[in-house]
Amino acid sequence: MSVDSTKDHVRIFDTTLRDGEQSPGASMTLEEKLQVAEILDEMGVDIIEAGFPIASNGDFEAVSEIAKRTRNSVVAGLARAIHADIDRCGEAVRLAERGRIHTFVSTSPIHLQYQMNKTEEQVLAIITDTVARSRNLIDDVEWSAMDATRTPIDYLCKCVEAAIRAGATTINLPDTVGYATPDEYKAMFVEIRNRVPDADKAIFSVHCHDDLGLAVANSLAGVAGGARQIECTVNGLGERAGNAALEEIVMAIRTRGDALPYATSIDPKFLTRASKLVSAVSGFPVQYNKAIVGKNAFAHESGIHQDGMLKNAETYEIMKPEDVGVKSTSLVMGKHSGRHAFRDKLKELGYEIGDNAFEDAFRRFKDLADRKKHVYDEDIEALVETEIATQGE
Ligand code: KIV
Ligand code: ZN
């Protein structure tokens, strides 16, 4: 099967409320989860993974409440390959307009030996049994091969074939431990989709962890290999180093449509709001230099960059801040700022001073910036006021 190169729709499956919440210390209350689900629904997320219903009564309640309230997105719950998990999950998503059971089992030799203590044949039988049980409860069933990227490809093909034959409509091949490289991950999807009979009956999905900082690159590589669903989280929240960051994937596809000929249904204007909300409710701050949603993502301090930005924003920005819900670019005044930005700042603050006064004020601003980490507007105002006063003496 060849890889489709037209501008295909790639489904965004957000798992902030399930994999994201599994980050140690990131647990959220019901009210907080409802707020997050609401913004995900509004921003155009195709599938919201709302939780792991068997994990606790609280998780069950959150999944069923989100299932009831969500208007546009499919609402999924996670279930191990255990009847009780699947039945509980089915019950939790029952009231969704569009619900999904997402069931998974480990497939790699190391997981089979140490975690499951089962043979390959036993796991194949479990896949057939649990996917079929899920399909008896609901039409939309996702099956995941946990640790797919460390599973021998011949065995992985058999597992995927069994899952599709038993009725799985989405096949997710996670890089559970963030081990794959982009080329390997893409090749895995190409080979599986070529070898497995009826592979085109299912949507293939990527799910990447960021242990080596490759989660977003791997996700996009998996899509190049034919996957059409990306599992990700807001701010990349998730186990260990986290999951692929939703905002990075959405903006990479949107900004680089020439190289990544896909489309998502996400309205990027919500990205900043969603990031702030998830950071607030999870208690995980967003690093200043985080792509797309970090405080510095649209901030410039160096003189050369500020000068360029004042002439044409495209000199140093490849996205418009307004597109992701940020009011505007910020030119931060500091020791790296140059005359152009300083003059512009004075104008913004309402000052017009002569050339000599300007040169004096600029020198004093540079001295101040050498001593102070942050130079605020008030500092600059004080400096110019003193300059004006001394000129008048
Ligand atoms: O990382 C993983 O393998 C998972 C599965 C449960 C999909 O989160
Ligand atoms: Zn995961």
From TrEMBL:
Binding-site list for Mn(2+): D19, H207, H209, N243
EC number: 2.3.3.13
Gene Ontology annotations of biological process type: L-leucine biosynthetic process
Sorted UniProt keywords: Acyltransferase, Amino-acid biosynthesis, Branched-chain amino acid biosynthesis, Cytoplasm, Leucine biosynthesis, Manganese, Metal-binding, Transferase
Cofactor (UniProt): Mn(2+)
Enzymatic reactions: 3-methyl-2-oxobutanoate + acetyl-CoA + H2O = (2S)-2-isopropylmalate + CoA + H(+)
Transmembrane parts of this sequence: none
Domain Pyruvate carboxyltransferase stretches: 10-272
A GO MF label: manganese ion binding
Top-tier EC class: transferase
Pathway named in the protein's UniProt entry: Amino-acid biosynthesis; L-leucine biosynthesis; L-leucine from 3-methyl-2-oxobutanoate: step 1/4
A GO cellular component entry from the record: cytosol
Keyword rRNA processing carried by entry: no
Function of the molecule: Catalyzes the condensation of the acetyl group of acetyl-CoA with 3-methyl-2-oxobutanoate (2-ketoisovalerate) to form 3-carboxy-3-hydroxy-4-methylpentanoate (2-isopropylmalate).
Family assignment from sequence similarity: Belongs to the alpha-IPM synthase/homocitrate synthase family. LeuA type 1 subfamily.
Oligomeric form and interacting partners: Homodimer.
Name of protein: 2-isopropylmalate synthase
Organism: Stappia albiluteola
Taxon lineage: Bacteria, Pseudomonadati, Pseudomonadota, Alphaproteobacteria, Hyphomicrobiales
Originating gene: leuA
